[in-house]
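Problem 12. The chain below contains 120 residues. Write out its predicted structure in token notation.
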Amino acid sequence: GKALTWGQTNRMAEQGQEVFLDETIGERIVALKGMFPESVRNVVGKVTSNGGYALGKALTWAGNAMWIVVTSYVVLQFIPQYEVDQDEMQRQQLAQRKKQSAGLLQARPMPGMAPAPPRS
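Solution.
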């Protein structure tokens, strides 16, 4: 609403009326500063400063730990899968060679042997 003068707010307060002043959060914090002794303010300042530092270190450590866990998982999953794929590929190549060898033997008769009868 309408801005009140300092005198008006004092009169309203004396009459028992509630007075609500428009204050920003910053103004309220600055006003609270005078309510506490310097030693309390210093302790709170150190605690919040150290808390922020500790939080930053904890987040850095957690990020590093997560990186190690995720990359280890990926590598440990990749190696066995690679081995399985290699074994499967070798089996397929061996089967293909056997088919080729069997096909060549059937297609060319050995010297001195009669040709294979045609399949019906």
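Discussion. Helices lie at 6-14, 25-33, 38-107. Students who got a different answer should revisit the alignment rule from Section 12.3.
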